[in-house]
Amino acid sequence: MDPTLGGSFPWPARGLSVPRIAGHFNLRDRDFSVEYRIPFLAVHLYAYHGRIRLAGQEAAIHPGDLTITPPDGGSRYHLPRPGSHLCLHIAVPEASGPALELPWHVRLGDEATMLRERLMRIIDHVGRARGAPGGPAEAAAAGGVLELLAWLAERPRAGAGASRGERAVAQAAAELRLRPERAWRMADLAAHVGVSPAYLARRFRRRFGHTVARYQLVQRIGAAQALLACTVEPVGSVGARVGLPDPHHFNKLFRRIAGVPPSVFRSRHRAGDDPILRY
Fold first, then answer.
1. 3-state SS, residue 21
2. What is the pTM of this model?
């Protein structure tokens, strides 16, 4: 598979900014003849094949690829046939504090449809905000942009340009998040993602800072917290639903991760005093 553009750059993590431009952009450039350089952050989701020059690099782009260009970054394209992409042009927010590390280029794969829907919602908010500045649509557009960028900064680098180990770790983590109740054995999980148990254990710990077992436990307790907060199921039933059917064991593990027993978490949540999940 083609490599992606490497590297990342910082962007304010606390600032809200409404896109200055949001919508479809038609492109028919050939031979990198036109340079695009704007004073805004540019987010592009492509629906065509071509090549891009950006950040001193050149790479292929495919339908479902996304690039993020910093203000005044400069980009050039070569397309064998005309195409269009979704774009957001976002002004630098006036904010200080921590920064998000945004990737230059993401190969989204199966996540492209989800991201396209996110972009379309933001574009719709921007369109409605033009007729009512300062209203709910403008707030929704700014919040949608920050959520989108935070998701892209946190997303594991597991696209086509990622290493075999990164892809295996991302796939294993996704399995543990989506099916926390499943009693994965390390050997079975490693075989499922196509690597050896020792290799997965080593790469997983490097990526997340703790073991596969700890990661699975945190996912189970997080799922249990959601059930305790949103249902009236007995505590024992909640434990069974997240793969911890022994009530005593569930209580002990929940307290180890969340800091309080399940019953206390539920009562505090209902009182508006939510304990924080500690990883």
1. strand
2. 0.60
- The Cα–Cα gap between 233 and 237 comes to 6
From 108, 110, 200, 102, select the one nearest 162 (Cα to Cα).
108
Residues 6 or more apart whose CB falls under 8 angstroms from that of 262 comprise 224, 228, 235, 238, 239, 250, 251, 254
Please check whether residues 146 and 20 belong to one and the same domain.
yes
Least confident of 47-61, 163-177, 201-215: 163-177
The answer to whether the beta carbons of residues 142 and 16 sit under 8 Å apart is: yes
Which pLDDT value is given to residue 55? 83
Q: Between vectors from CA 158 to CA 50 and to CA 109, what angle results, nearest 5°?
A: 50
Flag the least confident range among 62-76, 83-97, 115-129, 233-247. Answer: 83-97
The answer to whether residues 33 and 94 belong to one domain is: yes
The CATH number of the domain where 230 resides is what? 1.10.10.60
Instruction: Specify whether 62 is located in the same domain as 146.
Output: yes
Q: What pLDDT score was predicted for residue 159?
A: 47
Q: Is 55 left (phi over 0), alpha (psi -120 to 50) or beta?
A: left
